[in-house]
Structures are given as structure tokens and as C-alpha cells.
Amino acid sequence: MSGGGRPAYSPVTEGVLSDLADILGTYGVSADREKRAAYSLDETLPRFEGEYRADAVCFPESAEQVSRVMKYANDNRIPVTPRGAGTGLSGGAIPLYGGIVLSMERMNGILEIDAANRTLTAEPGVVTSEITKLARERGLLYAGDPCSGDISFIGGNVAENAGGNKVIKYGATGAHVLGLEVVLPDGRMVELGGKRRKDVTGYDLIHLIVGSEGTLAVVTKVTLNLLPLPKRVTDLLVPMPTIESAMNLVSLITTRGGVIPASIEFMDRRSIQNVEEYTGMCIPHSDAGTQLIIQLDGMDRGQLWNDVERVGDICAGGGALEVFVAEDRNARDRVWRIRRLVAEEEWTGSMPLLSKEDIVVPMGGISAFFELLPAISQKHQATYNAYGHIGDGNIHITLFPESADAVEEDTAKSADSLRRDLYAAVRELGGTLSGEHGVGLKKKYTDIFLSRAHIDLIKSVKAAFDPNDILNPGKIVM
Ligand SMILES: Cc1cc2nc3c(=O)[nH]c(=O)nc-3n(C[C@H](O)[C@H](O)[C@H](O)COP(=O)(O)OP(=O)(O)OC[C@H]3O[C@@H](n4cnc5c(N)ncnc54)[C@H](O)[C@@H]3O)c2cc1C
To answer: How far, in Å, from the CA of 84 to the mean position of ligand 1?
Structure first.
């Protein structure tokens, strides 16, 4: 055993590389320095540049190859970190203990679209928006598409139970998964579920693996549920004076209004003003406390227009500064471009970043959370912008030092104490650490949210799947 109670892992020697090449072919494994560096990072901010490094990157082309690599790694005690497109925001694809990074990029085929059963079956390395596009061409909707749909893989979405803009109406990725083919850490292959829509034969292992961040099994095939494609979509851009008034609206729309929009997104004042600065765009009411994007969809124009009118009236009665209605493709793209740019601006900002959060608070606690947030950030000389999926209570907060002078030498330490205060407030309001990005490297905070018994149960599940702790070790729980 190594110091942390983990098994001592074996090094990836020339002999190991040669054995892996026997399984995967010469071009199926690489120990090239630059490749190892590139495949050891994801999009987590602040970056972990150079801190962790894979010893080998493997590129299987079939489930059989995945199975043989896993069996070999398990027999030889070599850690394996599955990797999708590397767009994760919690460090899930970072190989904390080196070893093998198992890239799924060559398993990228859409295997079947079955219109009669309304299912689509794909390999894990398919870019998610390809699935959305193909389904749409057949008059069907894949509703699990996250905001990173153009750059992330379906396997990564399954592993993170990715959310996105449409969770309020359609649910996160897991809500659309009917079947999985997985390879266990010892190399055994298991089929879970399939095209059937009901199945209580045994434990629901599909939804144990969904969101398990690549720690329990490698996903090698996914069968997804598709829905009828809504024929009409309209977006509303609604500037609101305060976050509190915006939250009141959200509640009124879904209760008294009787409408569940496809999306309710929000962007706070600072997010909007950052986009204006970054792009030179002029966004109406950019000094409003918050802006909502409300998407409504439906099958026919009359019914959708009723919903638009009902929601519009609620907005006007609830203090909206204006209600912009975007019906045609161009207008709708302009609205969503603002939302996309909010995230992009952070990537390019010059100020070092303290932390990027993905917390969830029950809807009734969101206004209270935003009352607490300024005091928490001030205490730590931090400033922030907030945006995200307000319709399901999932808030992204990006925290920066107040000024360049306020950047402490030990940024990690100040981020840690800031996070602890933030999480204490979230916990108090009945919320949790992550809504969609995953725990990943934030594992040291899980005990703020989960009881000892809960953590022990998670550890027992991990040990049952992976007794040698070779699959993505060091993630989720300490
Ligand atoms: C601009 C931007 C916008 C984003 N928007 C959203 C959003 O709206 N909603 C959201 O939820 N996330 C969002 N994300 C985060 C990220 O895109 C998602 O977490 C996505 O699901 C990760 O997919 P990936 O293929 O990049 O996986 P990776 O980052 O490569 O891996 C993520 C995790 O999945 C595991 N994994 C990958 N493939 C497999 C597999 N086949 N079997 C087992 N485990 C596997 C990895 O080990 C890792 O733990 C965004 C990221 C960016 C950069």
C-alpha cells in the first residue's frame, strides 16, 4: 500500500508499452511527451498545467480492446483514467496517479437510430451535437444536450450526468439513458438495459454508473431515448431589476402560469457587462440586476403562443423591465449568443481565477443565497459573476480576487477558505456541491454535504466495482 492507503501502482515500463501495443496496435498507444501532457488536462479552472501526467495514452477502437486493456491494467495494478473530449470542469479526466489515459475518441460511431423505438445507440466518443443533429433530421429530439454539446462526447456526458439548459423540462443526461454497455475494471463486459422503457429486474445499475465520473466502469456503448421534436420554439429575453424578482417570476411561471419552459437561464449584471466589454456588443438593460432567458417549445403555433402570452403577462406583472420575444432563428441565436459568451469571457479574462462553482440550491433558497453571497465574497476580498440554470437551481459562480493587489501569494489557500464559507451557506440552505460538473478534484469538500454513512456507502460501492482501485483513482471521495 502507498501512503494514502491506495495499492502501490506499477510503473508503465517499456515492457508495458509493448504489451499495450500488442492489444491496440502500434498507433493505438502513445508515450509521446506532448501527447501525454495534452491528454492529462481538461477545462477545469484554475488549470492544473503540468501537475499530473499520464505515462501512456491509449486509443481503443472497440469494447473488446477496452476490455483487454482493463484486464491487463487490473492484473498489473496500473491506474486507468477514462477520457472523453476533455471538456470537463471538475478534473475528472486528469490522471492523478499517472498510468494510462484511455481516450475514447476513436470509438466514435453512431451505431443505430431506431425510429420505431425512438432510440439512438452510439459509441462513447461521438460528439453530442452529432446525436442531436441526426435525431433532429429524423424529426426526433435528443433532449440531453449540454451547453458543451459541440465539443463534448456522449460518453463524457453519461459519466458526468451532464445537465445544460433543458433540465427543467427534460431532465439531465441520465433521464435519457435507456441502456449502457460497460467494461468493469477487471475487464468483464456487462450490458445494462437496452431499448426497453421499463426494467426493474435487479438494481438500477445504469443510473449508478451515470454520473460516476469514470470511477466504476468504462462506458463503451450508450442507448438513448429520443422524444418527438417540438416544432415551434420561442425565446424570451427578460431583464429583471433584481435576482429576487427574477426568482419570484420563475416560481410564478411554473406554478400559477402552469407552464414548464424548456429553459430558464439567468445572467447577473456583472456577467452581462463583462460580455459587453469583451465583445463591444450593446445589450439592452445591461445595468439590470439580472437577465433571464426563457425558452418555450411546443408542437403547434397556437398552443405555443398561448404559453408565450401567459409567460409574457407574468413577466410584465412581475416587474420585468422589458420582454423581448425572439421567434425566428436569427433573433434566437442572438439571445443565446449572449449566454454562451458569458462562459467564454471567463476563459479569456486577464484576472487570475480563484474558483469556478457549480452549486445547487433548492429554488426557495436562491434569493437567500444571493443575499449571503456578497458578504462571503467581501470577507475573502473576492468578486464574482453568476449565471446558469436558474430554472433548476444550478448556479455557476466564478470568483476572482477583488484586484490584482488582492491576489494572495497562496491562491489555492485563499480559494479553499472562500469555498468552505460558500459551501457552508449552500449546505445551510439545503443545497449541494455540484449540479452537473461533478465532484472530481473537489473531493475534499464532500464531507460538508454527505454524511459519514453516505460516504462509507460510496466507498463500498467503489470497492465492489474496483477492489484494486485502478479506475480513475482519487476522484469523488477522499
Ligand atoms: C464551454 C463549456 C460549457 C460547458 N457546459 C456544460 C453544461 O451546460 N452542462 C454540463 O453538465 N457540463 C458542461 N460543461 C462541462 C463538460 O462539457 C461536461 O462535463 C461533459 O459531460 C464532459 O464530457 P467530455 O467528453 O469532455 O468528458 P471528459 O472531460 O473527457 O471526462 C469527464 C469525466 O467522464 C469520464 N469519462 C469520459 N468518458 C468516459 C467513458 N466512456 N466511460 C467512463 N468514464 C468516462 C472521465 O474519466 C471524467 O471523469 C461545459 C464545459 C465547457 C468547456
So the answer is: 7
Check residue 477 and give its pLDDT.
77
pLDDT band of 352, cuts 50, 70, 90: confident
Of the listed ranges 124-128, 142-146, 167-171, the one predicted with least confidence? 142-146
Q: Which atom of ligand 1 is the closest one to the Cα of 343? A: 1
Q: What is the mean pLDDT of residues 356-375?
A: 96
Instruction: Look at residue 1 in the predicted model and tell me its pLDDT.
Output: 41
Burial class (CB in 10 A: 0-12, 13-18, 19+), 202: exposed
Domain ranges of the chain: 14-106, 110-228, 232-347, 355-438
**Bridge partners, 294 (sequence order):** 236, 264
**Residue 17 CA, ligand 1 centroid: distance in Å:** 27
> For domain 110-228, which CATH number applies: 3.40.30.10, 3.30.465.10, 1.10.10.1100, 3.40.50.2300?
3.30.465.10
260-285 pLDDT, tens digit per residue, is 999 999 999 999 999 999 889 999 99
Residue 2 scores a pLDDT above 50: no
d(CA 432, CA 426): 6
The model's pLDDT over 165-191, given as tens digits with 9 standing for 90+, comes to: 999 999 999 999 999 999 999 999 999
CA of residue 94 to ligand 1 center, whole Å: 12
Give yes or no for residue 157 CB within 6 A of ligand 1: yes
Ligand 1 midpoint to CA 92 (Å): 8
**pLDDT of 65-85, one tens digit each?**
999 999 999 999 999 999 999
CATH classification (class only), 355-438: alpha beta
Q: Do domains 110-228 and 232-347 have the same CATH topology?
A: no
Looking at CATH, the fold of the domain delimited by 14-106 is given as 3.30.43
User: Which residue is closest in CA terms to ligand 1's atom 23?
Assistant: 156
Q: Is 146 in the pocket of ligand 1 (CB under 6 A)?
A: yes
In the sheet that holds 324-326, the strands lie side by side as 324-326, 232-240, 290-298, 263-268, 382-389, 394-401, 355-360
Q: What pLDDT was estimated at residue 49? A: 80
The H or E element containing residue 412 is: helix 411-428
Give me the pLDDT at residue 60, please.
Answer: 98
Phi-psi region of 164 (alpha: psi -120 to 50; beta: other; left: phi over 0): left
Distance 22 CA to ligand 1 centre (A): 30
232-347: what fold?
Answer: Alpha-Beta Plaits (3.30.70)
Atom nearest to 92 CA in ligand 1: 49
6 contacts: CB under 8 Å, gap ≥ 6: 97, 469, 473, 474
